[in-house]
Request: fold
Amino acid sequence: MAKPKGGLTAWFGKGPKGDWVDIGAPKKKGKFQACGRKSAKRSKRKYPKCVPRSKARSMSASQIKSAVSRKRSKAQGVGGKPTNVKTILKKKTSGRKSRNNKKKN
Reply:
């Protein structure tokens, strides 16, 4: 029986869609470990924050630290669902408009 194209193997494996890495587990010289871990109970690694390798290379050290800390601060696997957080936060803008732009009636 042939393997179906797509699926998790294509997504997390190497290739055009895949090559995901754990940004919370850096190696030497700026490299990253593969995404995931074998067992949560037996593993020494903390909860992984996975992104595509291309995204991991484009992130600054502070962006990586922020994303990993936000992911690990939340309860993991609540209701059997994975915990997701945004990888890069957008800066919040204040809801105020400048006084000069408001028209007075």
